[in-house]
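Reading a protein record of the kind used here takes little practice once its layout is understood. Each number in the token line that follows is a code from a learned vocabulary of backbone shapes. One such record is shown here in full, so that the layout can be seen directly:
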Amino acid sequence: MPRVLVAGKLHPAGLKLLSDAPDVTFEYVEDTSTEAMLPHLHQAEAVLLRVQDMSAPIIAQAPDLKLVSRHGVGYDAVDVDALNARGIALSLVGDVNAQTVAEHAMMLLLSASHRIPVYDKAARPGGDWGYRNSLSAREISGKTFLIVGFGRIGRRVAKMAAGFDMKVIAFDPFLPVDASLPPGVTRADDLHAGLREADMVTLHMPKQDDRPILGAEELALLPPHGVVINTARGGLIDEQALNQALSSGKLHSAGLDVFAEEPPGSDLPLLGAPQIVLTPHSASMTAECAERMAIVAARNILDYFNGSLDPALVVNSDAVALPGKPE
């Protein structure tokens, strides 16, 4: 009887799948902290993981672990090498959050470009109604939009941007040279070249090393009306450099859903910048998407133990032996 640990609050649809499954027992710990799940790891054969850290020392506390089922598509906090060393599979939820994150990125782009937080404050009691004459809002129509990372989410963003008559440029170092691009999308072979041409930029790729993708040097390549959006990973943007660019007027605005430290400390200068729109790592957390992710994350666990888990949803399928996988 597989023993499952659900580590973090899960949509009821995912819990129902596990509850209805025969011969499956599970513990449900709603707290999303790493500390809360530690006492339950020693007997878990599968962990449905929300946002917690799964480093090598933590994995070592789960001697029976066979599968980590991520409630999402990112796995920066999971030590894949440690999983591989013990033949533990790591599954993701596929593209179920692509539409939601793409919508969020476009929402941040529009909100930041039109300075919605400032205009919202101006319209409320005690606000400065005359701010409407500041002309600080900028249109996105007709602008050049650089999409860094052209996977499932990036392609959906490109499709939405086309509806606003934006000129779309894609930069993705992992995109095959012969990969086809949607009509109207051009490719930048070099990030700096793309930034020099762009009015606005959005990030949709994982962090590759300790250096941000957008540091002071890269931000300086954007025009003063430039807008920066990040719904991908914290640490992809140098937050100090971004704050400096905004406060000095070298950038128009920014929209961030992710931060180098989460939740960000109250002393983070960006939190007080009027030119920025902030959301709490919630790009994929709509009611519809949360339900889809919960169902797929739970289904991956059931499919693993009955030998039908799709290898395409397994990050390390080449390094582990999946039940039902042909040898």
Remarks:
- The longest strand covers residues 3-7.
- DSSP finds eleven helices and twelve strands in the chain.
- The first helix runs from residue 12 to 20.
